[in-house]
Amino acid sequence: MEKLTNIGLQKKESQQVAEKLNELLANYHLYYQNLRGFHWNIKGIHFFQLHAKFEELYTIALTKIDAIAERILTIGQQPLHTFSDYVRVSRIVEAGDLSGDKETVSVTHQNLSTLLELEREILQLAAVTGDEGTVSLISEDINENEKTLWMLNAFLS
């Protein structure tokens, strides 16, 4: 008999989903920190617009970080919780000493593209394993991130 989690999912499959969710969690932390730095350091003619936009984006990212960590716990696993783990696991890298509008928006675009790529991997895995809660969480996030990516593209055009 297959072992089940407290919410009725297969433990082995939930561990696989949690590993990918932990990777997403790590990437979101680096994305968040990059946004904080851009918010603090942005300069130039788009200062007011981008200062506010970066704050909006990092506030949204913080909410998503919490939701991802809580989903990992819900499926019976442990979320990563040290910054050294985040840096080790993340595909997104720290972006330091950037203050220009095009460069900060470009890095944000790259970071968000990385998040979307990872979310699509998780969506596929969660769907195959019957983890509807994770599918729902990630589907909603993909929709929001695609819209933000479209807006960043418009800025960079």
TrEMBL record:
UniProt domain Ferritin/DPS: residue ranges: 19-156
InterPro entries: DPS_DNA-bd (IPR002177), DPS_DNA-bd_CS (IPR023188), Ferritin-like (IPR012347), Ferritin-like_SF (IPR009078), Ferritin_DPS_dom (IPR008331)
Protein name as catalogued: Dps family protein
UniProt family annotation: Belongs to the Dps family.
Record organism: Pontibacter saemangeumensis
Pfam families found in the cross-reference section: Ferritin (PF00210)
Source superkingdom: Bacteria
Gene3D superfamilies per UniProt: 1.20.1260.10
Sequence intervals crossing the membrane: none
CDD domains assigned to the protein according to its UniProt record, in alphabetical order: DPS
